[in-house]
Design goal:
Low-confidence stretches: none
CATH topology of the largest domain: RNA Polymerase Alpha Subunit, Chain A, domain 2
Number of helices: 5
Mean pLDDT: 86
CATH architecture of the largest domain: Beta Complex
Number of strands: 24
Structural class: alpha+beta
CATH class of the largest domain: Mainly Beta
Helix content: 10-25%
Distance between the termini: 149 Å
Length: about 325
């Protein structure tokens, strides 16, 4: 048994150089074969993320994303999710504000697995860097849509009413307010409260808003407006059995109509009526009668000028 082991050890130790070369050739062949049967995949819209020194922020940059071409074994390539790939540009070595132009290189791509980065397109990035500052500004509530008929938005307020914005100096100092995402009031008929995110001005990855969302109180009120419809002829209501002619003085009146502003804007003057009720009146006598008005549904009569007219019935 000892002779057999000695022979095995002797064969293993003999021709070490040839065996090393054989092993090297095997590894090279393996890589060549792997390269020959490897697959390529292009991933569009890979985000470009810029890391800066403390106290600096990105004001402008020429690229938000690039296309990255990857190569590797089919099993590796097929397992890559686009959201796990990113280009990381480290600018921490630059300590001063300014404009920098850099070439994007394969080693900047963060990619899982053993795949290889073939190319980036485009491959040149221009970045303008400024001092980072923090300012407190008012919160403005953005409102979208139209409430239910008869209602308007009386006010929309945010709690807290102010927010801190941190980012590049020229951008932050130009802000007069930070706005919420639009609050949809479509069809609303009662006041309500909702949580709403604050919209980030500029580049979202270089500007920070604190808090990131606020509580919004939307107060609705009745949407009443008034419109005067002039020179409406006064009509007469008579009992069917009465055969009389009627003289009215003055023959026309003005009617003030109240209601939803949208309805009043589209109001047709011919749909507003004025009349006096002469039922039961005797011919040959003068009467001072109140004028009544009829308006479309959703509106009401706020006033009539003059409120009364003189009416005289004459027998035919």
């Amino acid at each position: 048994m000892s002779r057999r082991w000695s022979r095995i050890l002797h064969l293993a130790a003999a021709n070490r150089g040839l065996k090393a070369i054989s092993l090297l050739l095997a590894v090279v062949c393996w890589y060549l074969i792997r390269e020959t049967i490897s697959f390529e995949v292009a991933i569009p819209d890979v985000p470009v993320r810029v890391r800066l020194a403390v106290g600096l922020a990105v004001r402008e940059r020429s690229l938000q994303s690039v296309e990255v071409v990857l190569r590797g074994a089919q099993s590796d390539v097929m397992q890559i999710r686009p959201d796990t790939v990113a280009v990381i540009v480290d600018l921490k070595r630059f300590q001063q504000p300014g404009e920098y132009v850099l070439k994007l290189r394969p080693h900047m791509v963060r990619v899982p697995g053993s795949v290889r980065v073939v190319s980036l397109d485009p491959e040149r990035l221009r970045v303008r860097v400024e001092e980072k500052v923090t300012l407190e500004v008012p919160v403005e509530v953005a409102v979208a849509g139209t409430p239910a008929l008869g209602f308007v938005v009386r006010e929309a307020t945010a709690d807290p009413p102010r927010a801190k914005v941190t980012g590049p100096a020229s951008l932050v100092k130009s802000l007069d307010a930070v706005r919420t995402e639009p609050v949809d009031v479509t069809g609303a008929s009662a006041s309500f409260r909702t949580a709403q995110k604050l919209m980030c001005p500029g580049l979202s990855d270089t500007v920070d808003v604190d808090p990131s969302q606020v509580t919004v109180d939307v107060v609705l009120a009745a949407a009443t407006a008034q419109r005067r419809v002039e020179r409406i002829p006064v009509r007469v209501v008579l009992a069917p059995e009465v055969a009389s002619s009627v003289r009215i003085k003055p023959p026309r009146v003005d009617i003030d109509v109240k209601g939803d502003a949208r309805l009043l804007k589209a109001l047709d003057a011919d749909s507003v009526l004025a009349f006096v009720d002469c039922s039961g009146l005797k011919p040959g006598t003068r009467y001072e009668l109140a004028v009544r008005g009829i308006v479309p549904r959703g509106m009401f009569v706020a006033g009539i000028t003059p409120p009364t007219v003189e009416v005289k019935l004459s027998a035919r």
